[in-house]
Amino acid sequence: MNNFLQSIIDRDPAAKSKLSLVLTYPGVKAVFFHRVANFFVKAKFYLVARIISQFSRFLTGIEIHPNANIGKNLFIDHGMGVVIGETSEIKDNVTIYHNVTLGG
């Protein structure tokens, strides 16, 4: 988690502290909830995974399908309107801005 937060600070000049990232950046929350939902998908608890992803969507405005393949240090900046579909594959150290749809 520490490397993830540091990677955001390195890429975003507006990021002042790790605490502010955790408390105020919706992309950080969305990636966290995706990791939790993805755990449940791998355990074959599909409904639980979808409920977590929908809660995250409500909370952050960012929709990430629980089965999307996301590498480390994904940074979603100004994430309103971001949709990452089930078939998406995102590699390490990627930055995504608002109003982006991935997958199809």
The beta-strand count equals 7
Strand order across the largest sheet: 1-4-7
Taken from the alpha-carbon principal axes, the silhouette is: globular
Class derived from helix and strand content: alpha/beta
Radius of gyration: 13 Å
Q: State the separation between the terminal residues, measured CA to CA.
A: 29 Å
Number of continuous helical runs: 4
Instruction: Please state roughly what percent of the residues sit in beta strands, choosing from under 5%, 5-15%, 15-25%, 25-35%, 35-45% or over 45%.
Output: 5-15%
**SSE pattern:** HHHHEEEEEEE
Mean pLDDT: 95
Helix content: 40-55%
Summarize the main sheet: 3 strands, parallel
Unreliable runs = none
Question: Can you characterise this structure?
Answer:
By secondary structure, the chain is an alpha/beta fold. The protein is 47% helix and 13% strand. It has 4 helices and 7 strands; from the N terminus they run H-H-H-H-E-E-E-E-E-E-E. The protein is globular and about 40 Å long. The mean pLDDT is 95.
